[in-house]
Structure formats: structure tokens, C-alpha cells
Design a protein that fits this description.
eight-stranded mixed beta sheet, 21 strands, globular, FAD/NAD(P)-binding domain, binds 8-demethyl-8-dimethylamino-flavin-adenine-dinucleotide, 409 residues, 36% helix, six-stranded mixed beta sheet, alpha/beta, binds P-hydroxybenzoic acid
């Protein structure tokens, strides 16, 4: 594993952002090394996203890792909303003029990217300890870490911080150079994965007296469910039986009849947060994906935003190496942030609409019901939800057409 010495781009983190970036750079003929602090198995064990926008699916195709996704992914043309006991359908396809989303788990996508990287013999260091980034402000970036009891150093042209919300890259930027915006929600999501058929063919978002719930899936025989829970709840309080019982209470009669329960394969609690760092570039360091921004999962946007960040930084790097122009890299932050704020707004809005906010009292609950009543019974309201859910085009907000960087180097 040739990780010492020099490379063009050092990528910190082998989540979907880091792996997709590594793959797109490889296709463009740009060398990169990935440093990951966890093991490959640990990364694959994290159960997270399930919904891919068309733009993300296209990028995975561009990265030549779309074969299994196209075969096994489930195309969804709509989803359900169960609000105060009444079911509604958001017809994504009809309301957006033909857009759909793809159900394909983050675990599978990560595995596809890891396999492609391995097959191409590209260097990844797992269990890299104490990763530290240096020199990015004065154009001589390098990265140090410990592995197998030895200190290592890698010099490079650029560092891509794909190391998630708790990573080292954002934390290494001088406080005076960065501004952070944050909202933490007063609840979390308790998620459960089971080898059981999903309760409905499409995703079902539930909002009711007992709080939010989501019925999702990974395939026709693997279901993924979430319950809104207080932040103070511990995983140990939630036996599988308690989970299923609470989900039954939040479902309607049809849902209760169709629900198939079984032992959990995974169960975890995730806090909900909205977060944006500005800017996303600091000299030769780029923040990509969750390292630069977090959305609550309600709008299913996190992984999709990570994928478009990757596309934008890849475009900039290709332009840099082919034309010695930093124009694309200079635009990176602005390009990403416009899209990021749009997704932040939608995720915050949908979260506010569907969850129970204990501190908002009965007035807050009534206003929320009235807004949902308006949205779900109006063509304009349904279209607003659908348009945001399927996501923005890649060229969103750009006035001049950009060059296509997909051609071979
Ligand atoms: P990741 O996946 O957090 O990967 C970061 C990687 O960096 C490593 N790392 C380090 N490596 C070296 N040195 C260090 N000092 C390091 N510090 C960290 C970590 O070990 C890790 O491997 O970030 P990335 O790649 O930006 O990907 C982002 C996505 O994972 C995230 O946005 C989504 O999972 C969010 N999300 C969803 N997004 C969607 O688009 N659609 C969905 O349906 C969706 N559902 C979800 C979600 C996130 C959830 N949770 C758990 C918050 C559902 C849930 C419940
Ligand atoms: C998931 O399947 O994990 C999932 C689906 C939709 C969301 C969030 C998570 O909004």
C-alpha cells in the first residue's frame, strides 16, 4: 500500500463522499490516497441513508459503480404520508414531470465503491490513527498519521476533508476563518433494520399525536423503520418488542394489519441537527459532504448533498490539472453552498412539519396541523414537497453552461 511520499489529492475519510471522490478522480487520471480512521467492516456496518436522488444515481453511473444499484435498487415514483390518521400520496413522478428516487442503501453503495477501489488497486489506509492536516493555507499541504505503530507523512497538492461531522479537517481550520450555523432538535430518531417485508410498497412518513415515524426499506425483504424519540432515551430502553409496539401505535389500521415484525438486525439512535460551515474551502483544503454540513434525515438529503459536493470538487480538480486553472476550485464553496442551503431549508421545514415539538404546546401543534392540511390538500403544496424531495438539477443556480469534465484526461 503506497501511502507514503507524495500524491495529488489526499482524501480523509472513506464514507460515501471520500470513496466517490476517489473513484471519480481515478477515472480522470488523478492520483489520490484515502485515509480512514476506522476499519472497512466498521464503515460497512453503519446503517444510514436509503434514498438516492436521480442526480446521485447518475453520478454513481459516471463513476462506473452503478451496475448493482441499477439491478437491485428500487425505483419509487411516490411516497405516502400518514397525517393525523389520514393517508395521502405524494406522486413524485406526476407532480415533477417524471422524476423518481431510487431506494438503495448507503451500505451497498459504500460496498460497491470499496470493491471498485480494491479492484483498481487504489491505496486506502484503514485504521489510520491521529490523522492530522498541515500546510493547506500556504500551498504546501501534507498529512500525518500513525499506523502499525509507525508515523507516516504524505505530501500532496490538495486535501479533501471527507471525514464527516466529527472529523479532523473542519476542526483544523482557524476559528477566525470559518463561520458555523447550527440548530439541534429536541429529539432523535431510533432506527431499526429487520429482515422482514416492508409494511408498504412505498415509503410512509407518519406524523401524529405520538410523534413522527418513518417506514422505509432496503429491498422487498428488508425493512427500515424509524421512531421519533426524546433525546434522553437510551438504546437499552428499547427492546425490539417495545419498538414494534410503539410503531403499531403510530400506524393506521391498514398499517397494523400489514406490519410484519421480526428480530432487529441493527438498532441505533441518531440525534437530529442542521449545520452549515462557511466557506467550504480553505486554501488547499476542501470540506466535502457531512464534514461541511449536516441536515436532519427527514428530507433524505445528506448523502445526496455529499455526492454533489464531490462532483463540484472533482470538476475543479480536473480543471486544475488539465488547464492549470483554479477557477473551478475558486467557485467550489459558492456552488455547493447554494445547493446546501436549499436542502437545509427543505430538511428543516419537513422536520418541523412532521415531528412533535414538546415545547411548542397546543398552539404549535394546531398550527402544524393546519399547515399540513393546507399542503396535502393543495396541488401547489403537494408539488412543493415533491419538487424538493426529488432534488435539484446538477446545474442549479448556474447562469453559464459549464464544460463537461467527463471526457478522458
Ligand atoms: P460519513 O459517512 O460520516 O463518512 C466520514 C468518514 O470519515 C471517517 N473519519 C475519519 N477518517 C480519518 N481520520 C479522521 N480523523 C476521521 N474522522 C472521521 C469516518 O470514520 C467515516 O468513515 O460522511 P460522508 O462521506 O460525507 O457521507 C455523508 C452521509 O453518510 C450522510 O449524509 C447520510 O448518511 C445522511 N442520511 C441520509 N442521506 C440521504 O441522502 N438519504 C437518506 O435517506 C439518509 N438517511 C442519513 C439517513 C443519516 C442518518 N444518520 C445516522 C445520521 C438516515 C440516518 C438515520
Ligand atoms: C432510510 O431508508 O434510511 C431513510 C429514508 C428516508 C429518509 C431517511 C432515511 O428521509
Amino acid at each position: 500500500m503506497a501511502a507514503e511520499g507524495r500524491t495529488q489529492v489526499t482524501i480523509i475519510g472513506s464514507g460515501p463522499a471520500g470513496l466517490l471522490l476517489g473513484q471519480l478522480l481515478h477515472i480522470a487520471g488523478i492520483d489520490a490516497v484515502i485515509l480512514e480512521r476506522r476499519s472497512r467492516e466498521h464503515v460497512l456496518g453503519r446503517i444510514r441513508a436509503g434514498v438516492l436522488e436521480q442526480v446521485t444515481a447518475d453520478l454513481l453511473g459516471e463513476a462506473a459503480v452503478g451496475e448493482r444499484m441499477r439491478r437491485d435498487g428500487l425505483v419509487h415514483a411516490g411516497f405516502g404520508m400518514l397525517v393525523q390518521g389520514r393517508r395521502h400520496r405524494i406522486d413524485l413522478h406526476g407532480l415533477t414531470g417524471g422524476s423518481t428516487v431510487l431506494i438503495y442503501g448507503q451500505t451497498e453503495l459504500t460496498r460497491d465503491l470499496m470493491d471498485a477501489r480494491h479492484a483498481a488497486g487504489l491505496p486506502t489506509v484503514y485504521e489510520a490513527e491521529g490523522v492530522s492536516v498541515h500546510g493547506f493555507e500556504d500551498r504546501r499541504p501534507y498529512v500525518t498519521w500513525r499506523h502499525d505503530g509507525r508515523e507516516h507523512r504524505l505530501d500532496c497538492d490538495f486535501i479533501a476533508g471527507c471525514d464527516g461531522f466529527h472529523g479532523v479537517c473542519r476542526a483544523s481550520v482557524p476559528r477566525s476563518a470559518i463561520r458555523e450555523y447550527e440548530r439541534v432538535y429536541p429529539f432523535g430518531w431510533l432506527g431499526l433494520l429487520a429482515e422482514t417485508p416492508p409494511v408498504s410498497e412505498e415509503l410512509l412518513y407518519i406524523s401524529g399525536e405520538r410523534g413522527f415515524a418513518l417506514c422505509s426499506m432496503r429491498s422487498h425483504d428488508r425493512s427500515r423503520y424509524y421512531l421519533q424519540v426524546p433525546l434522553t432515551d437510551q438504546l437499552s430502553q428499547w427492546s425490539d418488542e417495545a419498538f414494534w409496539q410503539e410503531l403499531r401505535r403510530r400506524l393506521d389500521e391498514t398499517g397494523r394489519e400489514q406490519l410484519v415484525t421480526g428480530p432487529s438486525v441493527e438498532k441505533s439512535i441518531a440525534p437530529l441537527r442542521s449545520f452549515v460551515a462557511e466557506p467550504l474551502r480553505f486554501g488547499r483544503l476542501f470540506l466535502v459532504g457531512d464534514a461541511g454540513h449536516i441536515v436532519p434525515p427527514t428530507g433524505a438529503k445528506g448523502l445526496n448533498l455529499a455526492a454533489t459536493d464531490v462532483k463540484y470538487v472533482t470538476d475543479g480538480l480536473i480543471e486544475f490539472y488539465r488547464e492549470r486553472s483554479e477557477a473551478g476550485l475558486d467557485e467550489y464553496s459558492v456552488r455547493c453552498l447554494r445547493r446546501v442551503w436549499r436542502a437545509e431549508r427543505f430538511s428543516w421545514w419537513l422536520t418541523s412539519l412532521l415531528h412533535r415539538f414538546p415545547d411548542e404546546g397546543p398552539m404549535g401543534a394546531k398550527l402544524q396541523q393546519a399547515e399540513l392540511d393546507y399542503l396535502l390538500n393543495s396541488e401547489a403544496g403537494l408539488r412543493t414537497i415533491a419538487e424538493n424531495y426529488v432534488g435539484l438539477p446538477l446545474q442549479f443556480g448556474e447562469t453559464t453552461p459549464r464544460r463537461d469534465t467527463r471526457a478522458s484526461p
